[in-house]
Specification:
This protein is an all-alpha fold and 182 residues long. The protein has helices spanning 6-28, 31-50, 58-78, 88-100, 105-119, 124-135, 140-147, 151-181. It is globular and about 55 Å long.
Length: 182
């Protein structure tokens, strides 16, 4: 396998950014923390590129940097606020899952496109709950309060809406594969 040239590191990072952000969200379960860590990973990639570092397996290499930067993030925050560090077992499981089922950046962009299409199938109060949860980043209890619902009703509505979105995206992916192979 040929090692990647240093200038390719930054290009590959930019192409893999969305997948890596998903990886970080899987580990941190906090979109703001994931975005901050992603920026630190980007700085590390630029620094390594400047040093002339060559990498044979970029995705595995950058996920390892991300894992270390995640640990650094939680250690730094622990000095001022109590944040539980994600368990080593959970981080290893997420890393293994990404190793086993590596998502191509183009596949991630296709899923995003399908998600936007599929969101049109969600309407009314369910759409409002989805937007409040993922656009506005409100907790289920805050959504319940804002919508005049019980927290358990919000949880059910979000779960059902996510299932509809998942099924819709999977259907579109299958249709795309059938078109390519048929």
């Amino acid at each position: 396998m040929n090692a990647m040239a240093p200038t390719d590191l930054v290009r590959e990072f930019l192409e893999y950014r969305d997948v890596l952000l998903g990886f970080l969200c899987s580990i941190t379960r906090d979109p703001d923390a994931a975005e901050e860590i992603l920026q630190n990973v980007g700085l590390a990639v630029v620094a390594e590129s400047g040093r002339g570092t060559r990498v044979a397996d970029f995705r595995r290499w950058v996920r390892e940097i991300a894992r270390h930067r995640t640990a650094d993030y939680y250690r730094e925050r622990a000095r001022t606020q109590p944040l539980p560090l994600p368990s080593a077992t959970m981080m290893a499981t997420v890393c293994q899952a990404y190793d086993e089922r590596d998502v191509e950046p183009e596949g991630g962009r296709l899923r995003q496109k399908y998600l936007l299409d599929c969101l049109k199938n969600i309407s009314g109060r369910a759409r409002e709950a989805i937007e409040r949860r993922y656009r506005d980043r409100l907790s289920p209890s805050a959504i319940a309060s804002a919508m005049g619902w019980q927290a358990s009703s919000v949880a059910v509505a979000l779960s059902r809406a996510r299932r509809v979105l998942y099924d819709c995206i999977q259907s579109k992916l299958r249709q795309g594969e059938a078109t390519q192979h048929g």
